[in-house]
Amino acid sequence: MDIHKKIAIVTGATGGLGAAISKALVAEGATVFGLARNNDTLQKLQKNIGSKFIPVKLDISDGIAVKNWVTDTFSGAVPTGRQEKSPDILINNAGAGSFGKIDEMPSEEWYKMINTNLNGMYCITSEVVKLMKAKKESSHIVNIGSILGITTRAEGAAYSATKYGISGFSEALFKELRVFNIKVTCLNPGSIDTSFFKSSGIESHGNMLQTEDIASTLLHILKTPDNMLISEMTVRPLNPKAPE
User: Fold this and answer.
1) What is the Cα–Cα distance from 34 to 12, expressed in whole angstroms?
2) Burial class of 122 by CB neighbour count within 10 A (0 to 12, 13 to 18, 19+)
3) Residue-wise pLDDT tens digits, 146-163
């Protein structure tokens, strides 16, 4: 895919990885709709990235709000068939993570992860796919999973359950959508140099993966030839130990 002039949606756009992905896509000439719940942070990100980043305050786990936003924003909505403006790229990056003993974790944390990591991904994907199916050109959905979607760790049962879910969702979806010229990729990063794992007592450090490097890898996935699909990719830090 030639990313220049493409339209992309990035969920969880204000997080460390989401912001890096949004910035990388804009640098390639894409228009990026950045979705998040914090409008102030979205506005700050637009000032940093530029006018081709369009802030959208939206809770992706609210199915009705998502449906209304997609319908109001993009032409080409079924059944009109018009395609003046519809998304070519969807990056499902939004994610919630909490870690702790299963008998001590508040149930609210479990529901928050399920609602964001799985229900939210379903809500936005189910609406965007309707538009992608109407396009002749290749489209691409990238679901940001995790290393904890292919392995596990103690006190991470709830989070791993959602990330294993993303892996299964992605595998089934690519088989469903490949005949419509829609690619689906599951990208599983290892530990990232952000504050994401702070609740588990893990402090970020420079030997973890850098958000800009993951964003660059994502661009590589998007730029593959139209008839080539990287359905799943796992990236890890070579040496995950903190520098001495």
Assistant:
1) 7
2) middle
3) 988 888 888 889 999 999
| Catalytic sites, residue numbers | 159
Distances (CA, A) of 162 to 111, 151, 156, 216: 11, 12, 10, 25
Radius of gyration of the chain (CA): 17
Structure tokens at 189: 């990063």
For 209, which DSSP code?
A: B
Distance CA 231, CA 131 (A): 21
| Single pTM value for the model | 0.91
Give pLDDT tens digits for 85-120.
Answer: 899 999 999 988 888 899 999 999 999 999 999 999
Domain 7-235 sits in CATH 3.40.50.720: yes
Question: What are the residue boundaries of the structural domains of the chain, listed by start?
Answer: 7-235
Tens digit of pLDDT for each residue in 18-34?
999 999 999 999 999 99
Question: Residue 8 above 90 pLDDT?
Answer: yes
* 228 burial level (CB within 10 Å; 0-12, 13-18, 19+): exposed
